Amino acid sequence: MAVAIITTTIHRGHGAMTTTGENANPLRELEREHADCLAFADEIMRIADNGDFSEMADCVARVSRYNIDELEPHLQHEEQTILRPLIQDHPQHTPLCVTIGREHGLLRTLVEGMTLETAAEDLAEFGRVLKAHTLLEDRELFPLVEELFSDEQLASINSFTPFRRAEILQNPAPDAGAVRDDPEWLSALEQHFEGKDLAGGSIVLFPRYNPDFSRQMAERLELSLFDFQKEVMAELGKKADAMSLQQLTAALRERAAESGIVAHNVEALLCVKPEQERADWLRSFLETEWPNPVVLPIMVFQSDAPREHERICDLELHKMPKQSVAASPEPDSPVEYHFE
Fold first, then answer.
1. Beta-carbon neighbour count of residue 315 at 10 Å?
2. Separation between Cα atoms, residue 8 and residue 21, nearest integer Å
3. Running DSSP on this structure, what letter comes out for residue 149?
4. Strands in 107-223 per DSSP E
């Protein structure tokens, strides 16, 4: 029986792309999310300019939930299915990918640093960066996808699922009268490292990005928290993404010479490196002799870490708490973004 293959040609004023029916308009979901981003960015900036304290507090909470529910999965989608193949197969576009990767890191940092005390400034800056970044991708990144990507790469965009969704293990019921003070994942972390020499490098895989995980892990393991993005990359400004992974190793070694560390936000640099380069560096990280323990949380590029390595603690199957934010909505209450 003959099977008809439907093809669709997409025209956007900057070229055409012919795809099979399965991959027709592979950017549809990302474009829809971009429309939401632009609407939300405008609303955020309006509230930053004219809102009272109550409106700003509500907006800070909404931005935090938006980051977890919408923005972080969106950034992962672009990093893993668009930026990665562009850098690998079309290195002439690496400067654009570096710029976009840097802005992804900036968006994550702005959300993480948002407080009620500085809400007006924080919201205004986040809204401005979110809008400018979204327009840049619409103008320069998406046309490259339409022009350069193979059918296989387009299919990857369509089929991407963030955070490597896995079956969530439910917490066991506590004994009668027992008090559970610790999140279940911290107990699993402690159990993994129990009886092991922390000296050297270790990797902890998380199912999603949340800066609270790094802070809590550092406290539990009695290590110092070293925010690589804030303490190293931020000082270099626009030159930060040109850092090599050898320079990353040197920075970790220098900081680890002072004390054992949890190296937070290393993925801000890893996100602009090719997949194989990331994978090679993560393996070499585990094999490196460090002056003090170095624990590396990986919250985005879990698939690049070596499989079944004794120095890897995999928490991806554990139930993780939601990010805690002042004035955030109740966990079970619906969140409305009120795009206007």
1. 21
2. 7
3. -
4. 201-205
Q: For strand 294-298 and strand 261-264, is the pairing parallel, antiparallel, or unpaired?
A: parallel
What is the SS3 assignment for 50?
A: helix
Among 311, 224, 272, 226, CA closest to 105: 272
Angle of helix 119-136 relative to helix 28-50, nearest 10 degrees, comes to: 150
Please give the domain boundaries of the chain with CATH numbers for all domains: 7-160 (1.20.120.520), 184-314 (3.40.50)
d(CA 303, CA 193) in angstroms, rounded, equals 22
Contact of 76 with 162, CB cutoff 8 Å:
yes
Query: pTM (2 decimals)?
Result: 0.51
Encoded amino acid at 235, one letter: E
Cβ contact 156:76 at 8 Å: no
Question: b or e along 83-99 (b: 16 or more beta carbons within 10 Å of the residue's beta carbon)?
Answer: bbbbbeeeeebbebbbb
Q: In terms of DSSP bridges, do strands 16-20 and 7-11 run parallel, antiparallel, or are they unpaired?
A: antiparallel
What integer pLDDT is reported at residue 76 of this predicted model? 87
Q: Are 33 and 42 in contact (CB under 8 A)?
A: no
Tracing tokens 């610790």 back to the chain, one arrives at 182
DSSP type of residue 195 = T
Q: What is the DSSP secondary structure assignment for residue 174, as one 8-state letter? A: P
Q: How far is CA 335 from CA 40, 65, 66, 251, in A?
A: 13, 8, 8, 40
Q: Are 293 and 23 spatial neighbours (Cβ–Cβ below 8 Å)?
A: no
Main-chain phi, psi angles of 290, to 5 degrees: -105, 150
Is residue 224 classed as helix, strand or coil in its secondary structure?
Answer: strand
The size of the chain, in residues, is 340
Look at residue 257 and tell me whether its pLDDT is greater than 90.
yes
Place of tokens 């800070």: 60
| Averaged pLDDT, 125-144 | 96
Residue reference for tokens 């850092």: 243
Q: What is the pLDDT of residue 308?
A: 78
Distance CA 179, CA 131 (A): 46
How confident is the model over 171-211, as pLDDT tens digits? 333 333 333 345 788 988 988 888 777 778 999 998 777 77
Hey, how many other C-beta atoms are within 10 angstroms of the C-beta on 151?
13
